[in-house]
Amino acid sequence: MNEIAQDLNNKIQQENPYVYELLSTLGKELYYPKGILTQTAEAKQKAYRFNATIGIATEKDRPMFLPLIQETLADYDPKDLYPYAPPAGKPELRKLWREKMIIENPSLKNKSFSYPIVTNALTHGLSIIADLFIDENDPLVLPDKLWGNYTLIFGIRRGAKNISFPFYTEEGTFNTKGMKEALLSKKDHGKAILLLNFPNNPTGYTPTKQEATDIVEALREVAEQGMNLVVISDDAYFGLFYENTIKESLFGRVANIHPRILAIKVDGATKEDYMWGFRVGFITFGSEFPAVLDGLEKKTQGILRGTISSASHPAQTFVLNTIRSTEFQAQKQEKFEVLKKRAFKVKQILDHGDFNDAWDYYPFNSGYFMCLKLKGVNAEALRIHLLEQYGVGVISLGDGDIRVAFSCVEEDELKDLYDLIYQGFQDLSGQNSSNKE
């Protein structure tokens, strides 16, 4: 093992052996090399005559660029666009995103957590966490209502074994008891990775304050029984809280609650700030142990260096300038209100009772999505029928659930959308009836 990696491991192990035990074999071997980038950083500070270190081209002390590109980006200084960004991201952006997190997550007050590390959006951030903490057959505990890409990220890539529990209780609340039982079912393994996504994709559900309190207490109890836990908050849709929900990430409540629990926040500007194609995400670690935070940051930088090297510099600059703008909060609130009205409109349409013979809907209070629980019609058959006969696209989940993204349908068109889904349901249920006869 590389001596730098071994040194990081020793420091983590001395301060918190539980986090060391959580690391995968790859995670233990990772380190940030003292190579070209380290030497370049030193040269940036001290090479006052000539800096012939980094692999970019310059002219007149500025990055070299094509005028035809710069013409479309005239409002930006070339130095904020063309050079490589640092592997962990632009320092100014990391600092500002951390400050933003503290404002938006009151539970983080007086908590110890890292500066966010910039990733190529959330999928990349989740894959980094998988590399750091998952070996083959390690248990990944998550609700049964989940984003399908988790299987590729954690299962196919790293060999995690999914341990699922029902998302909802019979009363339509988050199933904290099921979560706790799923975790404890792998107690003999010694560790588990818990993945929670709120607002949830696909259901559009976020826990209430009491549910969040219950979740945190359940995690503490699991840790006290001797299990080491990585608790991931996938906050892709952070901030889109419309009704009686917690108004912050679970990360703030989970961070620092027990030495056996490592809290990790994965978020980004992609969805919460309506910058999907910019691909700017962040990983933030929550630990009260400085050597743990330092070690995990350096190991994460090692993954970044060994995969993408660094995330897009222009995209980071665009996000940074957006968050700095005095118009940012007002414009963001305007978009929030649009999505909130769509969510309320959907509930109004469904609560009218016109579709009760076709489906029930799962509780939702946040995010981009909601789910229908079909009555007697196969979800995939309905999806294909709607697409081919009515030009309507929805997502089928398992045999009986349909996900509808109200985020991409105008408020005044939502009734037409659900009318067409209902028509498709009637078509298929009618065919089923005639077949039975």
From TrEMBL:
SUPFAM superfamilies found in the cross-reference section:
PLP-dependent transferases
Q: Which residues form the Aminotransferase class I/classII large domain?
A: 77-418
Q: Name one GO molecular function term.
A: transaminase activity
Q: Which UniProt keywords apply?
A: Aminotransferase, Pyridoxal phosphate, Transferase
Q: Which domain of life is it from?
A: Bacteria
Cofactors demanded by this protein: pyridoxal 5'-phosphate
Q: CDD domains attached here? A: AAT_like (cd00609)
Family, per entry: Belongs to the class-I pyridoxal-phosphate-dependent aminotransferase family.
Q: What is this protein called?
A: Aminotransferase class I/II-fold pyridoxal phosphate-dependent enzyme
